[in-house]
Amino acid sequence: MINISEIIQDDVPQIAEWIAADSWHSRDPKWQNPEYMITGCGLMSFCLEDESGPLAYIQLLDDEDDARIAMQFAPEEVVNKRRLILGLIKVGIPVMKGMAEGFGKKGLVFETFSPSLIGFAENNGFQRVGETDDYRFAIEGQNDV
Amino acid sequence: MCDMFGGASNQEKSTLQSQTQLATALWSNFNQQYQQQQDVLKNLRAQIGRIQSGQTGPGFSGAENAARIALIQNTTAAEARNAVQAARSVGAGTQVSPSGGMTRQSGINQQIGAQISSKIGAAGANALLGEQAENFAVGRENAFRTAGALQVLSGDYNPSAYSGQENAALGQRFHMADTVQKEEAAKSQAIFGAATKLAMGAATFGMGGIGALGSGESFGEGVGDFFKGGMNESFGTNFGINS
């Protein structure tokens, strides 16, 4: 069963391991403090998990009118792509969209440079923001003005 | 700057006091926000469990569903007519046998038409199955999305609702408090050492990680190639429907 849970201090070592194994985040100064991912930080921080364990650590951040996604994935040998994608599609993305809506945000946005992830995002209702590398899901009824 | 005996100057003491007050306020804010998020997640977790164990139903309205089905059926019928007509046009006059040629040609046309109709009929049936799967996939997404929105919007987000309440995560909060205490200790050292990095780190922590993770955050490269095998390979012909 796919579900969500809070991120606690005990999760920090695993988050740190996943960051270290992430070729991008490991070089990103913003990702040098895994403690910032624990529940209580950001608009909402939670772990997406299935019956076998954590799939991803997710944080929604306040970004003016939108909620911005920060997400740390596991190395693929730890969480294969089928588990990850099923978790994101069935629970992760719908819940994030709902949370953004609940916070009164106009959209849910994230940045990516990966063509494959772009395809994934577009299949799930995200659209590129102008010429940026941001992909945004517009919350219905909150973009009319 | 330290005095000649190595003790803290009045300015340093004042700075330390301000920093301590700031850290206390930030910790208080963080703790409050932690309790709010924790309760939302706890309730949402229970709701997600209920949704997954039951039927979330279709996502399209009756009219939308009917329109989609009609579109598939009309398209299928049109494709069948066009294909059969095209086959007949191509076959017309191509072969006339001295003995009963017209009869044979008619039989061939019927066979071609039946084969085309059968194939297009199967494609139409697959399209209808796909439509139904998409309908329920949208219903499932709507259910989870609604649950997420309702939990965030619920009265549980009122901080006063938590006053005086103990919860099962006391031990976890102890760990976090312990971390903050260590940060404060490090921060004091930073102040006396004229370093600001750790102090800024503590402040960012209290602000909810917004400054720390920044507005330019992203999915990581850890997932950058997770579709290299292709969606079809992992999930069949339609990623969304087969999820």
Q: What is this structure, in a nutshell?
A:
Chain A has 145 residues and is α+β, with helices and mostly antiparallel strands.
Detailed description of the structure:
The complex is a heterodimer of chains A (145) and B (243). By secondary structure, chain A is of the alpha+beta class. Chain A has one domain: Aminopeptidase. Chain A contains three helices and seven strands. A seven-stranded mixed β-sheet of chain A has the order 1-2-3-4-5-7-6. Chain A is globular, with a radius of gyration of 15 Å. Chain B is mainly α and 243 residues long. Chain B has two domains: 91 residues; 112 residues, no CATH class. Chain B is built from eight helices and no strands. In chain B, α4 packs antiparallel against α5. The longest helix of chain B is centred in the middle third of the chain and has 53 residues. The relative contact order of chain B is 0.12. Classes of the chains: A alpha+beta (145), B mainly alpha (243). At the A-B interface, β1, β2, β3, β4 and α2 of A face α1, α3, α4, α5 and α6 of B.
Q: Name the quaternary structure.
A: heterodimer
**CATH T-level topology of chain A:** Aminopeptidase
Low-confidence stretches of chain A: none
Q: Please tell me the overall pLDDT of chain B.
A: 61
Give the overall pLDDT of chain A as a whole number: 89
Major sheet summary line of chain A:
7 strands, mixed
Please give the radius of gyration of chain B in angstroms.
34 Å
Count of DSSP strands of chain B: 0
Structural class of chain B: mainly alpha
Percent of residues in β-strands of chain A: 25-35%
What's the topology here?
The complex is a heterodimer of chains A (145) and B (243).
Chain A lengths: L2 E4 L5 H9 L23 E7 L2 E11 L2 E8 L7 H22 L4 E5 L3 H9 L3 E2 L5 E5 L7
Chain B lengths: L9 H44 L8 H30 L9 H53 L16 H23 L4 H10 L3 H4 L17 H5 L3 H4 L1
Helix pairs in contact in B: 1-3, 1-4, 1-5, 2-3, 4-5
